[in-house]
Amino acid sequence: MRLAPYQSGESFDEMFAPDGHPRPSGEKFVERLQTLSEGSLQQRQKTADLSLQNMGITFNVYGHEAGTEKVWPFDLLPRIIDAHEWKMVESGLRQRIHALNLFVDDLYNDCKIIKDGKIPEELILSSKTLRSQCKGYHPPQGVWCHITGVDLIRDRDGQIYVLEDNLRCPSGVSYVLENRELMKRTFSHVFQGMSVAPIEDYPEQLLKTLLDCAPEGVTDPTAVVLTPGIYNSAYFEHTFLAQQMGVELVQGSDLVVENGYVHMKTTRGLRRVDVIYRRIDDDFIDPKCFRPDSALGVDHLMDVCRAGRVTLANAPGTGVADDKAVYAYVPDIIKYYLGEEIILPNVPTHLCSDEKQRNHVLGNLDKLVVKPTNESGGYGILMGPQSSQAERDKCADAIRANPREWIAQPMLNLSTVPTLVEDELKPRHVDLRPFVLCGKDIYVMPGGLTRVALKEGSMVVNSSQGGGSKDTWILRNGNSIPEPHISRAAWEDKNA
User: Which SUPFAM superfamilies does this chain map to (predicted)?
Assistant: First the structure.
């Protein structure tokens, strides 16, 4: 197969160096790719697309003119990361999740970080995702953030940054697992013998994390996945993970609180539930505690949770650490709780709640990316260099009206990966969402969801905004790749 001409442009390309030669991590893959006959790659891509359609691997897009349900977009060319670089990424993720867990626990209990003046009290009190109902709560095993998805990007200089944290109901891991299976079936000739770290044990690790965090004294805990239902954008993932873990998928109407415990309705009567992997936002999980109009949750669920008789994963209230204004303080949070410098740096961030920083943002809207602090999915973002004057004026009015709800960052040139576009390989921008599990152990999935902006020049990789995905290969060079899990005690001892 002829690869030339592939022009990577000005961005850092994950597969090819500026001189056009494959990077060391991609050499073997490119060699194998070149052995394919002309048209073979395109045919394999069509086979993969058909498989996704036949298997019903979909996601929902609210308000999409073609209907709510779309086939998951997948590109056959993988993103490849070598073991040495992944070791650094993995250490940075462990450090970050460990510190954020301590931070959330502190906010809802002693508030030491605020009393010591390391983070402004008003910033926390004004966060839309702070939940006063969680004040004084101590979750089982002290874990708030059981499942985390951390969005990583690489700039044109090759530096990896954390773009944002997702500690409420992070989604996408089912597509990581399906992408890998699809790659094995349709690209086996290239995949075999590449020493790619396996990811197939994620459901097992997820179940172990959930059961490890069951309430004290429960010897044989029962876990369930709580879904809002079939119209949720991630419903495929909810069903997939429940099936892979071998646990029941339930809706709020399937659960009831009786005698101080949560029970699941079954054909044989009520069965006690000890751990709930909830895929419902805080506001909807308990109408008696949060939104009274919620038809998705369970009455008095929070009473059982606060009494320590059921574990909710992730714990309610973790969204305060998702706040993009709080994100700007993560380097300080890591330094405060762990006494360490941050391993994976943040993108430089301007807080519009600060007058001086706000004035800088308002004077440079044509150069910055402006984001609402509590939105997700790529919605509400102003891409300054690509925006019109009218769009910038509208954004400026919104910032002046409610400065706390906005941040701004420089426009980074996301790295690219070769992507099959109309029978040619073209560079398309990507990010990476690794998944981290925190229970008695800290487990980092070796890889994650590489999201790709399929539109030429676009930096928005979200599937809801026209993005797709790729398989992510973490190469194992001999024994150099670390174990994906480590006990929390060992991690704390190592960093004491």
Answer: Glutathione synthetase ATP-binding domain-like
For residue 480, pLDDT beyond 50: no
Three-state DSSP state, 341 = coil
Residues 342, 160 contacting (CB under 8 angstroms)? no
Element containing residue 71 per DSSP (H, E): strand 69-71
**How many Cα atoms sit within 13 Å of 75 on the Cβ side?**
31
Query: Quick count: other Cβ atoms within 10 Å of Cβ 100?
Result: 26
User: Which amino acid is it at 88?
Assistant: M
- Please list the residues that pair with 424 across neighbouring strands: 421
* Cβ proximity of 184 and 199 under 8 Å: no
Q: Nearest to residue 100, comparing CAs of 455, 409, 337?
A: 337
Q: 194-234 pLDDT, tens per residue?
A: 899 999 999 999 999 999 999 999 999 999 999 999 988 88
Q: Is 155 exposed, middle or buried (0-12, 13-18, 19+ CB in 10 A)?
A: middle
The confidence score (pLDDT) of residue 483 equals: 54
Q: Which ranges in 202-338 belong to alpha helices (H)?
A: 202-212, 235-245, 301-306, 324-327, 330-338
- The per-residue pLDDT for 64 is 47
Residue type for 14, please?
E
Cβ partners under 8 Å of residue 339, min gap 6: none
Fill in the amino acid letter for 382.
L
How far is it, in rounded angstroms, from Cα 131 to Cα 177?
Answer: 33
- What residues does each domain of the chain span? 24-343+412-494, 350-410
What pTM does this model have?
A: 0.92
Distance, in Å, from the CA atom of 3 to the CA atom of 115, rounded to the nearest integer, reads: 59
The Cα 93–Cα 99 span in angstroms is 10
pLDDT at 464: 65
CATH of domain 350-410: 3.30.1490.270
